[in-house]
């Protein structure tokens, strides 16, 4: 599968390495341009390609948004992701690290509005990058792996993302629709930032209704 990662920070670089080692073709981008990514690409995997955000999006079957949510200009143009699975791994924080006040809406809903023809799935935003990098357990039964949550309205898109989660040694747990399930993954929620086993994750979600 071709995966385009928008954002070359800790999360983007981590996911690029994990999926490259799982056998996928990876393109990665940042706001400064491909030339600035030479050193990073060399440390991730020699197969990873550096591109612009638009090039990475057009190259990909699945696009991962790992850029700062507060910088929508870093995202690819809507036409570049039309009909594609887009994983929204962003959280709404200010530059100083404070949660942004989004009113009654969520970051997932805003991302879907910015990219209206994409098949948006919220995922990979509740665990730290170092946890993703070190805690994948491919040889462990799924019920004993840590959880990566996902939410969305497109069943086939969620199935694709679930496979990508499992391929790097985690277990997908569905939090629901993009609106309701995305809200469950927001900073400050009971599941945000907490490494959880599937049974504990499902219990917390059931208690929240």
Helix/strand layout:
Elements: E1 2-6, H1 10-21, E2 25-29, H2 38-44, E3 49-50, H3 53-59, E4 62-65, E5 85-88, H4 107-114, E6 119-123, H5 129-134, E7 147-152, H6 155-167, E8 171-176, H7 178-184, H8 198-208
Parallel strand pairs: 1-2, 1-4, 2-3, 4-5, 5-6, 7-8
Antiparallel strand pairs: 6-7
Quick overview of this protein structure:
The chain is α/β, with parallel strands linked by helices. It is built from 8 helices and 8 strands. The chain has an 8-stranded mixed sheet with strand order 3-2-1-4-5-6-7-8, with helices on both faces.
Structure characterization notes:
- This protein has 209 residues and is an alpha/beta fold.
- It has one domain (2-208): Rossmann fold, CATH 3.40.50.
- It contains 8 helices and 8 strands, in the order E-H-E-H-E-H-E-E-H-E-H-E-H-E-H-H.
- It has helices at residues 10-21, 38-44, 53-59, 107-114, 129-134, 155-167, 178-184, 198-208, and strands at residues 2-6, 25-29, 49-50, 62-65, 85-88, 119-123, 147-152, 171-176.
- An 8-stranded mixed β-sheet has the order 3-2-1-4-5-6-7-8, with helices on both faces.
- The model has no long low-confidence stretch (mean pLDDT 96).
């Amino acid at each position: 599968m071709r995966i385009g990662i928008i954002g070359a920070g800790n999360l983007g670089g981590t996911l690029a390495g994990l999926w490259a080692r799982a056998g996928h073709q990876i393109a990665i981008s940042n706001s400064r341009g491909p030339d600035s990514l030479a050193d990073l690409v060399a440390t991730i995997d020699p197969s990873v390609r550096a591109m612009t955000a638009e090039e990475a999006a057009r190259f990909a079957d699945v696009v991962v948004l790992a850029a700062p949510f507060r910088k929508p200009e870093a995202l690819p143009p809507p036409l570049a992701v039309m009909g594609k699975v887009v994983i929204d791994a962003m959280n709404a924080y200010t530059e100083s690290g404070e949660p942004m006040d989004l009113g009654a809406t969520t970051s997932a809903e805003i991302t879907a509005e910015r990219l209206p023809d994409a098949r948006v799935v919220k995922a990979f935003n509740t665990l730290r990058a170092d946890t993703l990098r070190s805690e994948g357990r491919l040889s462990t039964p799924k019920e004993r792996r840590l959880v990566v949550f996902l939410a969305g309205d497109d069943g086939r898109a969620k199935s694709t993302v679930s496979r990508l989660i499992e391929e790097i040694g985690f277990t997908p747990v569905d939090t629901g629709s993009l609106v309701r399930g995305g809200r469950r993954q927001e900073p400050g929620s009971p599941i945000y930032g907490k490494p959880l086993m599937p049974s504990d994750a499902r219990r917390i979600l059931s208690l929240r209704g």
